Structure formats: C-alpha cells, structure tokens
Amino acid sequence: MMAHNNNSGVAVHLLLFSLGTGEIVGECNFTNIVRGPFQACHLGFSLAKRFEGQGLMREALSSAITYIFDEIGLHRIMANFRRENVRSEQLLKRLGFEREGLARSYLRIIGVWVDHVLTSLINHIRER
Known about the structure:
The protein is of the alpha+beta class.
C-alpha cells in the first residue's frame, strides 16, 4: 500500500505500509523532476531489511513507475546504484532499466566519494 505527496511538483514521495501492521516498511522517491524538453526524474528507494526478498519493492515500483509515466507524464526515470548493491541492480534490471554507464566519485557517502552505476527507464509509449 502506498501514500504520496506531490505538492511541490518537483518530487513524488511514496511510502510503503505493511497491510498487516500499518507500519512503514519502505519508501520510493521520484526526485529532481525536470519538465520542458527533458521530462525526467531520479528514482531512489529503500526497504526495511526484514522485508527484502519478498518482491515487495518490485510490486511497489511497478505501480509507482506506471503512475510516474501515465499520470505525471514523464519520459525518463534515472536510477543509480553502487556496484556492490546486487539487489538493487537485479531489481532495476527486472523493471526494465538499462545500464548507461559508470559515474566515478558520484556521491559522498559517510565521508567517502563512491562510484555509481547509471541506469534509466524510458517511457516508450510517450515517445511519439
């Protein structure tokens, strides 16, 4: 189950709730929404460790991506991950994201600049 807030127009923040307990178990964020000729955003997501491996994030992101493409009208979603994050890599591949390259020293995490793999998903329905 998801709830969202899109008041700013530059981001969509979605929360994933457990149907059984109502607790927040994860989130996904579509940020840096750019309109004009670009029509794109960045995707970030996280899930509580104990819920990993159950297909919950794939289910949530499938619905969220459809919303971003169909309702928000974006053309491109970009998602980046650290090379050692195999779970994120596999999830993004299953969702149809394609690898576009490697960004060296992309983000500073806990005081260290780390490389990230760059991927994207194109809304081919809106290409016309």
